Amino acid sequence: MLKKTNVLVSSLLILFLLWVIVAKHYGNDMLIPGPKKVLSAFFGLFSSSDNLMAIARTFIRLCVSLVIAYGSAIICAAVSVRFKTVGWFLNPIIIVLRTIPVISVIVIILIIVGFTVAPYLITFLIVFPLVYEGIKHALEHIDEDLKDVYALEDGRYFRGLFALFFPLIAPKMRSVLLQSAGLGVKVLVMAEYLSQTDVSIGNELYLAKINLAFDDVFAWTICLVLFTVLLEMTVRHMRGYTPKQYR
Description:
Blueprint: H1 2-26, H2 35-45, H3 49-82, H4 84-99, H5 102-113, H6 118-140, H7 144-153, H8 157-168, H9 170-195, H10 201-210, H11 214-236
Helix pairs in contact: 2-11, 3-4, 3-6, 3-9, 4-6, 5-6, 6-9, 9-10, 9-11, 10-11
């Protein structure tokens, strides 16, 4: 544990030194602001009620988008495993959503639905395929012996999801949630930036850019990194029932 901590600290120190070196090389805060100025701007973010509201609204948008995407993906994956026809029907849609460039999704959705709903829908469309494929793959690869034993005792598929299958794949579900949470932050803020969503971190980044306040751009970036790390730490420490074979 100590070795891991030392490596982590060393990595962060190297990144910090690289930042200092590059900032000194350019010697222009308009291009690469130094750590002192950025840290001052970072702590200044939390002194404004507007900035705190932007953070809160972005967090709410992220939670709403992830809950809808995760819930929909779990339902679709469970139904697809039970009814192969549904899986065949959804497969081309998932392939398109997985392969289409993120910027294309953003532009198309902005044109179709406008700026208010766009961040939610864009985040959903990007996160949904990742969660769907992860859950579906996990359900399909549950030990066949366990399925046979359950079939002899009960046999009802949808009841078995909650009694056996979901508990068995709980580690995989948390892993997928971890991946989707980090991706969701990136996509949501990008969508907010391009749609200039009112009261959002994306819009604050946009305003900082057009005002040439690059210290604020760096400060918001640090805020997003910390936000994502805290979110992922929360997911990693989620507790729930897990069968003995996964403990």
